[in-house]
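Forwarding these from the shared drive since the link keeps breaking.
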Amino acid sequence: MQENLAIGILCVLGGGIGAQWLAWRFRLPAIVLLFALGLIYGPGLNLLHPSAAIGRYFRPMVSLAVAFIVFEGGLGLDFRQWRAAGEGVLRLTVVALPINLVLGTLAAHFVGHLHWGASWLFGAIIVVTGPTVVLPLLRHTKLRPRVAAFLRWEAILNDPVGAILATLVLEFLMILGNRHSGMFVAEIVPHLLFATMMGVGCGIFPAVLVRFLSRRDLIPEILRIPIILTLAMSVFAICNFFMEGAGLMAATVFGMALANLHVLGMSELRRIKESLGVLVVSCLFVMLTADLHREVLARLSLPIVAMTLTVLFVVRPVGIFLSTVRSGLSWQERLFVGWIAPRGIVAAAVAGAAGLQLSDAGYPSADLVMPGVFALIATTMILHGFSLRPIARALRLTLSDDPALAIVGASAWSTDLAGVMHHIGCPVVLVDTYAGALAAATRAGIPTLRAELLSDEGIESLEERPADYLIAATPDAIYNGLVCARLAPDFGRQRVFQVSPGVARLDLYRGLSRDSRGRVLGEPAWNFTLFETLFERGWRFRAMPPVPAPSGGAPAVSSGSADGNRLTILTVRKGTAIWICSAEDATPVEPMAGDIDVVMEPPAPPEQTGLA
């Protein structure tokens, strides 16, 4: 038994993370791969059934994991982003939800042939758009900030609200089945209000407490993150004791409160929770899908398929259209948000528990709620996962898919480098805190950003024009290192570079810590002074085809000295990647047809310019 459980855990962890890596490597929707893997493990090969292996602890484990996911999502909900997104977010989270409830119920009854009780439960469950699906999709697509904010806020806020709504509908149906419907006003409504207020209060109070203790140095740094995570799980469990679904609201509010109270140490928590979030989402999707039984899949019928298509092509688009009438959303944004609505883990967990309770209460067709919800989950994950990027691109709601470069520090030579990148069509942004330093780039039409990248505002401003690579090119080596260290978790440590701080300071033991700086741009001798001196002598950046390898087969090596022929800075492969040259490269780049080298060359000799 223990060996089987260990093998199951290994399959879930290894397969889930493997699917995430494949999705990253080949730019595929990770959720689709995880869902397919679970189907193979469970209904396909009948190798893994988590609920049977774990027993009665399976559902509580799933609930705690979902609580962590909505807490993680709450940490990303800053009210400044809500204000930037405008009223569209409020409409999607308040107005659209009841409309989708009614339309989903009608679709379940008249198209899916479910009885009214099961139809209302189905309509309540499908109003959620899970953050477990939406957030990974947003990470892989460069949507414009406002559209991304719409989907992010809707997914995270609707998840706990949808869970509470489904619980409320279930309780009402159970009471109605006992023919005591008068209890709805007398007991259920006060109970709902109490649970809601408790969820909000239990979310805000611990966040204020953490802020109070942190400001008075009453929490040691080593315990800060464990305490916060423990509080998130605790408020979930306490509120769920009073009402199922209220715990999700409390966990979400706790995360939002921490984000908006600006508690110190949140940057470390965000990095850890993002990594844990990937692990939790991977395991949950594989386990929940593997836990499907073949009997559930066998209940899929033409009416359920028709109901699923109705929700996709009628219920969601009509609900979004009605809720956004006379709003500030463009028709492209309304069309896109009306299509993209993948359902996730909360819908699956609620359908499994609530559908079983309704079936035990004797409601007809209640056993069809779970297969209907899972059919919708599978369909939306596949269709929305693969169509999100092309549809967003067709509606011009994405930023460029070409790899983009951010250059920090607007000097004469870095402006010239940015100009060459802009000229060859590579997305680039030149960042500096001083408007005068950016003036020349602005006059040349080069995208610029005046911001301090060590501030929250600067990070948010850079997110509006997301870059894939960064070169810190200011005269201050320590500042360059701070920028690279701050942005490395977002860009990837192999994608942040800085001009050399000096040969002596690159010693891995006595020099600047590798975790506190970026990769070296070019050779160790290529410091800021060298680039500045060469530029004053007339050296300029230009784009050219890759230099062919010499006859010996080894790639040409650029010289870092002032009397060399050229300094090769980077290689651009359109639509694929930017390879920035570094002495810390593991292997040299193999040039391909169509690649573009950006090099720094001395001025041409007089005989080549036609001058005497």
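-- next protein --
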Amino acid sequence: MLKKAFAALTATALAVGMLAGCTDSQSSSSNESGDSKEKNGIVTITTVRTLKDDTKFREGEDLNNNPITRWSEKELGIKWKTLWTAPNDEQYHNKIRLALSSGQKLPDVFKVSDGQLINDLIRSGKVMPVDEAIEKYASPRLKKIYEQFPEAFYPATVDGKRYGIPRFSGGNGSDSLLWIRKDWLDKLGLQPPKTIEDLEKIMDAFVNKDPDGNGKKDTIGLTLASKNGLATWLADGSFIFGAYGNYEPGSWSKGEDGKLVYGSVQPSMKKALAKLNEWYEKGYLDKEVGILDEQTAIKSFVAGKSGIISAPPWAAGWPIADALKNNPGAIVEPYPLPSGPDGKIGRRGEGLVTGMFLFSKDFKHMDKFFQYLDEAYAYVYNDSKYFKYGLAEGYDYVMKNGKPVYDDKEIPGGRLDPGAYFITEAIPTVPYMLYDLVEELYTTKRQPKNAYEYTRIVSLGESFMKAATIVNQQNQYRIENEFTGPPTKTMQKRGEFLTKMERETFANIIYGRAPLSAFDDFVKKWEESGGKEITKEVNEWYQSVKGAK
């Protein structure tokens, strides 16, 4: 588990990771060869990226013409040229694969989040190692972040060399806590849960004491998604497993000997599955829990038919806001995760990175890339000479009477997010930085000092800030997946079968279709059907990347 001390980063590291978490760019040439080209002191760097529907522009603008690209060209001498976009990661990665297999020139800089594709690109010899460039061109603040999170480089480390720059996540930005219908608690005279036993009493009341007052027994206790795994990003069940041990299903963690072990086959899983079966039999869970994914599971909570959901702080905006809108008078509050019988608490920990920036072997301007990246971090650090009040006047702020105003209603045409125009696809984040800052703002009640604090924290509301503070205060209970490499050889051959077997076994135990002893049979079959070999391969990978620079 990650310790709280590790999460309490310096302000510098915190701010830096924030920016890195948003980078998704490429740099290449403006000519057909793919080599970056310099003309009149301006370096053209090509890139490709995903572009989601919620990225908005002012009329007449696009990814190649917006306030960030104009700033980059004028102040840094970098002209970014986005060659193409894709609406989602799947289509994006397919286009990269096609370019690789057909021998096309790669863009100068591009982000990849698929582990196998990262490995294939590195093995192809078409992307360059970055160790020398980091040493020569990365700013002190970037180097500091990279030194604090060496494991962030593991996904793009091969034979002791690093081939990618991490696109950092928020660290704990998508870690979950409990969201509970407080109006139901108050109506039934209940207190928030501190233990799993407390939670059971609440769920029992939510199911059997008509909390919505419609005279029908039509409510459930806990919204849970399990179709794609029980430790997930929304309607998360990881806290249940964390209450019984230091492992999460579908995740690789350090065992007692320091080697990586697969969470789904550890003995503590059995206790959690027994508890889930008990809850299902008592009607605390949706009858169709086994086939519900994240999107379908939340429907019960949004409709006002469920009283509890485990979700990240950003859920305050969705789906919590939808539940409040659909159920007049509803009050939903965030609460810490409860402890198990032995005092254990645990949750699925978000990974450190959401992708890696790779660079064409022909790219000649790593110095410019790092200059651009550092200036983006400078905004998060609030020490930028270019972004003193915000990213772009008329987009995320306006000046009135000599002072910046961040209120959406005061910005002609409404506030837009220029951070989405960076190659990072959003304002980057250093792992754990954002929620450290949220906690400081929430507990001290001070006013935001800059655009970043207003637009990324305060404007999201009290509920989000309270939830993020709670998550940050429980950082010591994170259980992070330590395996971030490409699928191993045996995973490629047997992984699909093993995953299917695991999910079917877990679902059957929860539904009561199979006895609890089926877990022991599953563990034995998992090991015999490739699991033992996969464990060996995972640890070989782990040892190889730990020894890298």
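The chain has two domains: 39-168+354-437, 177-348+487-527. The mean pLDDT is 92.

- D.
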